[in-house]
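User: My instructor asked us to take a sequence, write out its structure as tokens, and then describe one feature of it. I'm not sure where to start. Here is the sequence I was given:
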Amino acid sequence: MSALWWYDTLQIKSVIVVRGRLVRLLGKEAGVHNRLADGANFEDPGLSGPDALDTHRQQGTKMRLTTKGRYGVRAVVNLAATGHDRPVSISQIAGEEDLSPEFLEQIFFKLKNAGLIRSVRGPKGGFVLNRDPSEITVKSILDAVGEPLNPTPCADGQVPPCPRIEDCSVAPVWQSFYDTMERFLDGVSLQDILSGRAAGETVGLTG
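Assistant: Let's start with the prediction itself. The structure tokens for your sequence are:
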């Protein structure tokens, strides 16, 4: 066999090995990307305590409301806009808002338990608001569906306190941020949204 044949064979084998490694690498990266897209979280092994818990919960996503919070607000606004006394079905709201009916059913179950909406039985049944639109705030909707607003584990006091809380100079910043966000959302009602008052105005931050 000629030296040229051996050289060509060696080149082909090298290409196969490189391609194999590249495929495995891309496969791993794709797997990580897919898990992140699906909401998977990766904990930093160098963290412990509340910091590790917070990282495990939030890493891989931006700081933003989850779908249950956003969909819950959209659905209740839709319900309020349709009419305070006219029942609206889940399928109608889901179709108009392009939401999953099954997911929306779970959200409405929580909203009903919180007393924000009520169900009406019958052929033309559905859901209606259980309170006046001026009495239902964005925060009350988020609380009803279980949407967490705390930016850090120490901000809302509902988790074990961070061991550094006594000496942490940054904790008051997160607490102030959380309080401001809570006050803002608690100052925006369905009536504000329907009337357009919540658009382009700073509401709920005075006093």
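For the description part of your assignment, you could build on this observation: The chain has eight helices and two strands. Try explaining in your own words what that tells you about the chain.
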